[in-house]
Amino acid sequence: QGHLVESGGGLVQAGGSLRLSCAASGRTFSNYAMGWFRQAPGKEREFVAAINWSGRSTYYTDSVKGRFTISRSNAENTVYLQMNSLKPEDTAVYFCAARSVTNYGFTASEYDYWGQGTQVTVSS
Predict the structure, then answer these.
(1) Which residues of 90-101 are buried (b: 16+ CB within 10 A; e: fewer)?
(2) Count of C-beta atoms within a 10 Å radius of residue 11
(3) Phi first, then psi: what are they for 35, rounded to 5°?
(4) pLDDT digits (tens, 9 = 90+) for 56-78
(5) Cα distance between residue 116 and residue 66, in whole Å
(6) How far apart, in whole angstroms, are the C-alpha atoms of residue 74 and residue 29?
(7) Confidence of residue 49 (pLDDT cuts 50, 70, 90)
C-alpha cells in the first residue's frame, strides 16, 4: 500500500513562487512515473506536469511551460513542483499522483495513487 502526501502550498502574490513537495511512503515509487494535477473550484481536475521514473523525461501543460519545473529524488522517494511567476489562474488544489509504470500519462485515470492535495492561492 502506498501513500502520497503533498506539502508546500499556501498564499502567494502574483509573480511569486512556491515549491510543492510530494513525499511517498509505504512502498518505493522509484519505478513509477509521477504527475501533478490541479483542480480549481467548479472545474475538473487537470494535468499540470509529469516526470518519468528516471527523471530524464518531463512534460508540461502549455499554460505552465517555462514557469513550473517538476523534478524527483528517488533516493528520498519525493517529487517536487517548483512554481515560479505564479498567476491568479494557477489558484487550485494541487494533487500529486503516481502511475505504476515507468512512463507518464496525461489523464487522471492513468494514475494509481493520489495524495490528498495542497491548496495554492495566488492573489492579484
Answers:
(1) bbbbbbbbbbee
(2) 12
(3) -140, 160
(4) 999 999 999 999 999 999 999 99
(5) 26
(6) 7
(7) very high
